[in-house]
Write a structure and sequence with these properties.
The complex is a heterodimer of chains A (221) and B (388). Chain A is an alpha/beta fold. Chain A has nine helices and five strands. Chain B has a five-stranded mixed beta sheet, with helices on one face. The chains are: A alpha/beta (221), B alpha+beta (388).
Chain lengths: 221, 388
């Protein structure tokens, strides 16, 4: 995403079916100088309003009525791939979080995260950096191992490099990017690239899977 | 930590017995249908044969009593209360009497010739009732009772009686065994359905807790900090409760019928505001003993952190499933141990990670490594092999 002018406030959309929570978060973001361009209470509404309001970052709860968070994520991104989706979930429903990330979400934060953590995460996601909690890193690491042991098409591009695995493990163990950079004698930017690559591989793999599924279904019908 | 282990207790749960009894309903209806058909057979046969009887009038009285009993007992057997033991015993008694009165009404010459009794197959209905009520033992005992009655009626041994006795015993055994089998499989089915219903109910509960209570707790944690006074304390408490509740409702049900348990489920009790758990998407199944020992070692390591790394320290636990082995890493963000000091502490006992940690994991055929980077805390890594 290219930020047209640094002085322009970040355009954010807040999606949650609980009005109390939605309003509190929207008020916090406005107070911090961000522009809340839209809010939505269900997944379908989120897809429609995201297309109209063109936010840079969509803050999305996973448990939504009408259309769930995972489906909303993929539809929002299908309509406009430049939008960044940050999952903010109280659920701890591990599988949902992983599915949302596979569908293209760039970050995940639990609702118990502090205001400062949330603001920092929004900024990082807007800049194109994935936001990984240790919990999400553990899930992604496990997902790649599962793909490998299931013997899914051993495509070199589908697997994590040794370095990427190493970085992901350190994220899962709670180290900051700065600490990881120090430990591996690499730059902060390189750490970010490794994390970004793992996410890209996962999302690419998911798209390939979906396509293959669609083709199989198409041939069967 | 095994929320559903108590379902095994339901073996003697009265409500399950009740449900199984209700399921025997069709069997009782079949008994009633058989009894009426047998009665029609007796009526038609006696209409054609009563002229040959010694006392045809008394014969009609006996047939009338059988008809009355058919209606009465079929009516009473409609409800579970009507199928009580005394009723079924009386039923067998009436059946035996119906066989035994034959010599009193029939022509002795006919009996000697081996003609069937007046009651024909009608007494078998009582035998079926006993078999349905008590399974194999009931069927066998009723067969013995009706056989004895047949022998009394005959007065002497005849080949037709022997054949009848064999048929009665076979019927009692087969129907009794089948009824017993039906009850056992019905019990298993009812139990399975209950476990399924309990799991469904828990899922429903978990969803509504996720949707409501957790959201509110997160909101309190977020906003209460600004209130001043007890606010920050309230926010901290809400945060702790949120994590505890989330761990509780997202706990998966142990795989039924296996001795394997999910390591992540066991470790999830550790989660708190100062401990983060990172895990793979799927359950990490290990033999129960291995999972519990490894959990105990991890808990000891995490306790060690709280004791030594100070109050503000945070702990991260990472669970990795590498197909041939399981790795659990416990890391804290305390001061770490200077390189020299770690080397100096040649035995892990010096680090306060003695038998409770290293011994446990070595007993499982695994190993423990400790790594410390100054300023980046200490890492304890547990490797436990998966044995085929």
């Amino acid at each position: 995403v290219t930020d047209p002018a640094a002085s322009d406030p970040l355009r954010v959309m807040v999606v949650d079916d609980h009005p109390m929570w939605r309003d509190a978060v929207a008020a916090d973001l406005s107070a911090a100088g961000l522009e809340v361009v839209a809010t939505a209470g269900d997944g379908a509404e989120a897809v429609r309003r995201a297309a109209a309001a063109k936010p840079q970052v969509v803050l999305l709860d996973l448990q939504l009525p009408v259309l769930d968070g995972v489906a909303a994520t993929s539809q929002i991104l299908q309509a406009d791939p430049s939008i960044r989706v940050l999952i903010l979930s109280a659920s701890g429903e591990q599988d949902d979080v992983l599915q949302a990330v596979k569908a293209g979400a760039t970050g995940y934060l639990v609702k118990s995260a502090s205001r400062e953590e949330l603001l920092e995460a929004i900024e990082r996601v807007a800049a194109g950096d994935p936001v990984f909690t240790p919990g999400l890193a553990g899930l992604v690491l496990g997902e790649f191992r599962r793909m490998k042991s299931d013997g899914e098409p051993a495509n070199e591009a589908d697997q994590l490099s040794e370095r990427e695995t190493e970085v992901l493990r350190l994220v899962a163990k709670g180290l900051s990017y700065k600490q990881i950079a120090e430990r591996l004698f690499i730059s902060h930017r390189t750490v970010q690239n490794h994390v970004q690559n793992t996410l890209r591989k996962l999302q690419l793999h998911n798209r390939v899977e979906l396509t293959r599924y669609a083709i199989e279904r198409g041939l069967d019908d | 930590v095994r929320p559903f282990s108590d379902t095994r207790r339901s073996q003697c749960d009265p409500s399950i017995t009740e449900a199984v009894e209700a399921a025997t309903e069709p069997l009782w209806r079949a008994v009633a249908v058989f009894r009426f058909l047998a009665l029609v057979y007796v009526l038609v046969a006696y209409l054609l044969l009563n002229q040959y009887f010694a006392r045809p009038g008394w014969g009609w009285v006996v047939v009338g009593v059988m008809a009355a009993w058919t209606f009465l007992v079929s009516y009473l057997y409609r409800t579970p209360a009507g199928r009580r033991s005394t009723m079924v015993v009386t039923d067998i008694g009436v059946a035996c009497l119906a066989i035994a009165v034959t010599p009193l009404v029939d022509d002795p010459a006919r009996i000697a010739h081996g003609e069937p009794t007046l009651a024909l197959v009608w007494p078998v209905a009582a035998l079926l009732a006993a078999a349905v009520r008590w399974g194999l033992p009931g069927g066998l005992l009723a067969a013995v009772a009706t056989s004895a009655a047949s022998l009394t009626a005959r007065g002497e041994f005849a080949w037709t009686t022997a054949r009848n006795i064999v048929l009665l015993l076979v019927t009692g055994t087969v129907v009794g065994y089948a009824a017993g089998l039906f009850r056992r499989s019905q019990t298993a089915l009812v139990q399975a359905l209950r476990i399924q219903a309990a799991a469904g109910e828990r899922d429903r509960l978990a969803r509504s807790v996720h949707d409501g209570v957790l959201q509110v707790l997160a909101l309190v944690q977020r906003q209460a900090g600004d209130l001043g006074g007890v606010g920050p304390e309230l926010a901290r408490a809400a945060g702790e409760q949120e994590i505890a509740l989330r761990a509780l409702v997202s706990r998966p049900i142990a795989a039924l019928g296996t001795s394997q348990v999910d390591l992540v489920t066991l470790l999830s009790v550790l989660e708190s505001t100062s401990l983060t758990l990172a895990r793979p998407p799927d359950a990490v199944l290990l033999p129960e003993f291995v999972a519990r020992e490894l959990t105990a070692a991890v808990v000891a390591a995490a306790d060690n952190v709280t004791r030594h790394a100070g109050v503000g320290a945070h702990t991260w636990v990472l669970v990795e499933d590498e197909s041939d082995r399981v790795t659990v890493t416990v890391r804290d963000d305390g001061m770490g141990i200077a390189e020299g000091r770690l080397a100096e502490a040649a035995s892990l006992g010096r680090l306060g990670v003695g038998q409770s940690i290293v011994g446990r994991v070595r007993d499982l055929g695994g190993d423990v490594t400790v790594e410390s980077v100054e300023g980046q805390g200490t890492e304890i890594e547990f490797h436990v092999p998966r044995l085929a």
